[in-house]
Every structure is written in structure tokens, then in C-alpha cells.
Design a protein that fits this description.
single chain, 192 residues, alpha/beta, Rossmann fold, seven-stranded mixed β-sheet, three-stranded mixed β-sheet, 6 helices, globular, binds glutamine
Length: 192
């Protein structure tokens, strides 16, 4: 099992640390050729406009779309924005996951927050359904979940913060910034 982490911008290093901690080989992805021998890919948080522009410059857009047709991709925060079909702004998007997203939906950096959530899908992959501590940093909201995509987690008020469509996974929050390894284990189970 080898999982790549898109390493154009953002907190890719934290994802790599987490993957290594659960015993998974991890590799930085900056060029199309780096996708060749991977079982899955994580796209980190950061600034989605920057990540998109760099992906265009490095000719990664079509190779990433092709990868997502066959293998698992997980976008956290900016990575989830980049996966989505529409953000109602002009910026490069992969557009391969049937969700629409609102950027910076919770306000500015100072409105970042943490909350414990119920994420039932973690149970099958990890055996534990203890509440999952989530970190939101200038986070996007998943506005609509369409086609065969489904909701994985919601805030107590019902707003959607995680979704999955087959092997494509999108989270508004940052599991790589906690010490709880369950979300990464869950993603590994989607890569198998
Ligand atoms: N605000 C960023 C964006 O819109 C996402 C923030 C994050 O990835 N933590 O791209």
C-alpha cells in the first residue's frame, strides 16, 4: 500500500506524518509521473486557488482526473474544494466529485473552531464509533451532495462537512492536525 500526498502547497507534511504513523508508505506528488505506482491520493488543506493554479502549471489536471476515475482520492479542506464540481467562483477545479462547496463559509481565520462529531462510517473501518474531534480552519461547507455521492458527517445544525462518492472522499476539516488516526485508517480502507 502506497499513498501519495499532493505536495504543491498547504499542509501535506502533516498528512505524510500521519500515514507513516499508521504504517503506510507515503510519497509527495508534484508531477504527473509521481501518480504512477500509488493506491490512493490525499489532497491537503491550504489555499485552493493556489493549489489549482499550480496543478495547471505542472500539467496535473487531467492526470489527477484520470487517477480519480480508478483510485481513491481524499480532499481535506482546500483539497475538498479542488475535488468539487462547483464553488461559484472562477478557479481551477478537478470537478470530479458530485458536490458543490462554499469557500470560507464560516467566516475568517479567527472564526476557526473545533468540535466533536459523529462519523458512523469510521466504525466499519476502525471498530470505533467514539466521537471524532474535528478542526475547522477557514473551512468550506459542502452545500449540496448530488448523484451517488452521500453525506458522511454533519454539524449539529445539519450543515454538511464530509461526503463520499465511491472512492472519492471530501472533508471540510483537518484530520491530519489531530492525534486521532481513524480518519486516515478509514481512507486506507477505501484504497484497498
Ligand atoms: N480557505 C481555504 C480555501 O478557500 C481553505 C482553508 C483550508 O484548507 N484550511 O481554499
Amino acid at each position: 500500500m502506497k499513498i501519495g500526498v499532493l505536495a504543491l502547497q498547504g499542509d501535506f507534511a502533516e498528512h505524510i506524518v500521519m500515514l507513516k504513523r499508521i504504517g503506510v508508505e507515503a510519497a509527495e506528488v508534484r508531477l504527473p509521473a509521481h501518480l504512477n505506482d500509488l493506491d490512493g491520493l490525499i489532497m491537503p488543506g491550504g489555499e485552493s486557488t493556489t493549489i489549482g493554479k499550480l496543478a495547471v502549471a505542472y500539467r496535473l489536471m487531467d492526470p489527477l482526473r484520470e487517477f480519480g476515475r480508478q483510485k481513491a482520492i481524499w480532499g481535506t479542506c482546500a483539497g475538498a474544494i479542488f475535488l468539487s464540481k462547483d464553488v461559484r467562483r472562477d478557479q481551477p477545479l478537478l470537478g470530479i466529485m458530485d458536490i458543490t462547496v462554499q469557500r470560507n463559509a464560516f467566516g475568517r481565520q479567527v472564526n476557526s473552531f473545533e468540535v466533536d462529531l459523529d462519523i458512523p462510517e469510521l466504525k466499519a473501518a476502525t471498530g470505533s464509533d467514539a466521537p471524532y474531534h474535528t478542526v475547522f480552519i477557514r473551512a468550506p461547507l459542502i452545500e449540496t451532495v448530488n448523484g451517488d455521492a452521500k453525506i458522511i458527517s454533519q454539524l449539529p445544525d445539519g450543515r454538511i462537512v464530509a461526503a463520499r462518492q465511491g472512492k472519492l472522499l471530501a472533508t471540510s476539516f483537518h484530520p491530519e492536525l489531530t492525534r486521532d488516526e481513524r480518519f486516515h485508517q478509514y481512507f486506507v480502507s477505501l484504497c484497498r
